[in-house]
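Problem: given the chain below (194 residues), write out its structure.
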Amino acid sequence: MRRIFLLPTMAILLSTLSTQASAQVVLSPVTKGVDDPIEQTYRITVPKNITITCPDTLVEHVHDGNDTDQTFSAVQIWEVKGNSQKGVTVTFDLDSPFSIAGSTLDHQRRDASLLITPGTPQGPASWNGTAATIFTDIDNGKLADSWQSQSDGVGRSTFSLTMKFVNQLAGAGFGAYEAGTYETTVTGEVTENP
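Solution.
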């Protein structure tokens, strides 16, 4: 009895599109005989991932009524990822002093102080930038501050942010500033190195 096998040639193209990635798969069967091995290659494309993650966009604290600086108890741990060989730069900006609705009146604003502590990085990249405190200084006209860290390659790291509401302004402490809701903003940004 004689058997005949027909192997049809198949080519199937699948295209999956999304906002972040696309994949194309081409199927082309290969048949070989005895002592003629077939190699199959597996390939995956890893997309670029340069991101910064903020744990919460609103962090609240209630003043304890003491004539002391008020440290926010909730330390904020931000995460930065950058799988580019060029590395990334992360910037944290302290945008203003604490104030009631953006007021420039001394009895409605107080200085902000932000401690930034780099965490343990993952991946081969080295990160520059050591723990530092950035702050405003209303008395001397310093109304914003900034801090940066750069990686030299692929990696990720965390950054712990600890905010402090500075009680004294021009020698006047608690009871010399108005009751109300005081706000400041920290802006975090990551960019790919050139």
